[in-house]
Amino acid sequence: TTAYVTFLHASDAAKYYDATANGLLYKDKEGNEEHAILTEYGRDVDPVSGVLREWTQKEFTRCVRAVGVDGDWTAEALNKLAGNKGRKVEKVVDGRNVNGMRSVTFRFCDIADAVKFKQTLGRSEDWEECNIHFAPDP
User: Fold this and answer.
1) Could you give the CA distance from residue 62 to residue 51 in angstroms, rounded to a whole number?
2) Cβ burial 28-66 (10 Å sphere, 16+ → b, else e)
3) SS3 11
4) CA–CA separation, 11 vs 85, rounded Å?
């Protein structure tokens, strides 16, 4: 099986490659058998689309953060909201910022899903009191 990862910045690709030069180990779903994933640089370079170039220049990321989220939102509801319309969610992190306000970060597998989700939240009456912005991608 092969997977491809596209990085927006060459420095991020180099950092990831350096950290995984000896591969990644993970266990199967049952936690029994250990597997290894080997990493390597791609040989072919795809030209960056105009849209992706614009997102990079505007510092869009796969992560959308909402600050001031209503306390009624459960973890299950937040995950369901993020995953609507076929969006693939990597992780939802629910916490508090330094001022004690509830802060939820939605990390998507694809930057396009994050862009669409941010637009959706920005148009929603349920989220109009929140500060919604792109967050750093770990």
Assistant:
1) 14
2) eeeeeeeeeeeeeeeeeeeeeeeebeebeeeebbbbbbb
3) helix
4) 32
Q: For 12-31, how does the pLDDT look when each residue is reduced to its tens digit (9 = 90+)?
A: 888 888 888 877 787 777 87
Closest CA to 16 of 47, 45, 37, 44: 37
pLDDT in tens, 28-51: 778 777 878 887 777 666 666 778
Quote the pTM value: 0.73
Phi, psi of 104 (to 5 degrees): -120, 125
Q: Which helix (H) or strand (E) holds 96?
A: strand 89-96
